[in-house]
Amino acid sequence: MEELSKNKIKYIKSLSQKKYRKVEKHYVAEGAKIIEDLIQADHKIGVIYATPEAYHKLISASQNKNITLIETSQKSIDKASHLTTPSNAIALMPISSKKFHVDILRDKFTIALDNIQDPGNLGTIIRIADWFGIDNIICSKDTVDVFNNKVIQSTMGAIARVEVYYEDLHKVIEEAKHDHIDVFGTFLNGKNIYTIDLPKQGIIVMGNEGKGISESIENLITEKITIPSFRQEKCSESLNVAMATSIICSEFKRR
Amino acid sequence: MEELSKNKIKYIKSLSQKKYRKVEKHYVAEGAKIIEDLIQADHKIGVIYATPEAYHKLISASQNKNITLIETSQKSIDKASHLTTPSNAIALMPISSKKFHVDILRDKFTIALDNIQDPGNLGTIIRIADWFGIDNIICSKDTVDVFNNKVIQSTMGAIARVEVYYEDLHKVIEEAKHDHIDVFGTFLNGKNIYTIDLPKQGIIVMGNEGKGISESIENLITEKITIPSFRQEKCSESLNVAMATSIICSEFKRR
To answer: Scanning every residue of chain B, which has its alpha carbon at the shortest distance from the alpha carbon of A135?
Structure first.
């Protein structure tokens, strides 16, 4: 068993900040469960530091996978962890430099996020995408960072199976439209999602928690949709973005 | 303008604890928006303490409604508030003593919650119920208290329109079955929710975040349902309970 050095702990801790993740091109995933999912989905993994208990859980999963698995003490993990309740394992994950190409939008549904700010919402939306077999999420550059530890942990491992890109949303949507891919967005005055015809491919844009879809993106939407409320009287202003995403994905995928 | 006395502040603060809510039969709702929703839905309201700004928002809504609206300082509100970011208004709300009767289950859908523990999940489920026009939620007695300030605030006013009961879930479901009302529950081995026939009335049981529906309630379920995953490979263990509730309510209500 190896204790983590002060410098190593400092390095791991530094990755809780976006600016250091950007420089080091690594992020941190914590907990044997999420790390196992990342291994199974063939993600590149730098090093895993694990308590004896987690080490034994991860040893068989990481065999023949070119992964460095190091047994360390809970005390070392406690010092390096980004979480208020420290986990049992810490993986240093290279940030993928996978480039977006419009081809990935063809013959499938893709979620686009326009300035989502809450880490919990982004994490939940990644879980929904995973459940409904949506492979890619395109985030506007001002959307919260997916490598934020709150996002990673709230995906419960779904991050291993869903690719998240940060792109100029404008440009992506314009390229998609050029390729005759429909672009859907939710608006209060949109068409009833339960009764409109839905295609087999398209981009589903979800907007910011408070402000919705930005005006410049709204202008690019080809089909405005709405989830109708079943209450006659005045109702909550809107469903939150994660609930709306789950209902919309359910409708698009069930047909 | 009237400053809140020390005793008044102490009393309001005490209502953040369930044991005092039980004795005093009052709970606290905060923020002009939620309070306005409660007024509009004709909830009984004891007293509202509001900052000058909130006072002016609430004055017309509360006219002819037998509501005591008192203007106070932000400083007083800050001292009495249950929130980390204090609101602009505090309402003392009598806890309704509405008794459950099996009649409320007829000809409509009702959500039953079996030991939901997270205040945010309960709040979100109340918003979903509101959106889909579901009037009543029956909670098992071990479900988190709806009058918890985290629940009240996360309902965003939906609490004004959805009635929440705490009952012996066993007894309620047995009475419902006696009245030929179907009882649905989500299980991994349930029938595909997208393809089964759904009636126009019924109880939808949602289970605890970690453990799902308890065994004793499972035995009373008349129809086991499931939300199928659209991913072929291994997937996240499950959708969280709030996402699952939104998808199920969407399916039940759209037909």
So the answer is: B231
Cβ neighbours, 10 Å, residue B117 = 15
Mutation target vs B (from A200, A225, A254; most B CBs, 10 A cutoff): A254
pLDDT, position A234? 58
Closest residue in A to B128 (Cα) is A239
Per cent of chain A over pLDDT 90 is 77
Task: Say if the Cβ atoms of B133 and A230 lie within 8 Å.
Answer: yes
Q: Give the CATH H-level superfamily of domain B6-94.
A: Ribosomal protein L30/S12 (3.30.1330.30)
Which CATH superfamily is A102-254 part of? SPOUT methyltransferase, trefoil knot domain (3.40.1280.10)
Q: Which residues of A touch B200 (CB under 8 A)?
A: none
Sheet strands side by side (includes A89-94)? A26-30, A89-94, A47-50, A68-71
Average pLDDT score over residue span B10-20: 96
Secondary structure of residue B112 in the 3-state scheme:
strand
- Answer yes or no: are the C-beta atoms of A181 and A201 closer than 8 Å: yes
Average pLDDT value for residue range A181-203: 92
Give, to the nearest 10 degrees, the angle between helix A241-254 and helix B119-131: 60
Q: Which residues of B touch A161 (CB under 8 A)?
A: 231, 233, 235
Mean pLDDT of B105-128: 96
Cα–Cα distance between B54 and A89 in angstroms, integer?
Answer: 49
Contact flag A231-B132 (C-beta cutoff 8 Å): yes
Extract the tokens encoding B178.
Answer: 């006696």
Q: Would you say B90 and B48 are in contact if contact means Cβ atoms under 8 Å apart?
A: yes
Domain ranges across chain B: 6-94, 102-254
Contacts within 8 Å (CB) and 24+ apart, B194-199: B194/A254, B194/B228, B194/B251, B196/B223, B196/B225, B198/B251, B198/B252, B198/B255
**What does the block give as tokens for A80?**
């390096």
Q: Is the pLDDT of residue A93 over 90?
A: yes
Number of residue pairs across A and B with CB atoms under 8 Å?
95
Across B95-113, average pLDDT? 92
pLDDT (average), residues B32-46? 89
Both tokens of A225, joined, read 């949709």
User: Does A161 contact chain B (CB < 8 Å)?
Assistant: yes
Per-residue pLDDT at B40:
87
pLDDT of residue B160: 86
Task: Determine contact: B231 vs chain A, CB below 8 A.
Answer: yes
Tell me the pLDDT tens digit for each residue of A45-91: 989 999 999 999 999 888 888 899 999 999 999 999 999 898 999 99
Q: Is B131 within 8 Å of A230 (Cβ atoms)?
A: yes
Please state the pTM of the whole predicted model. 0.89
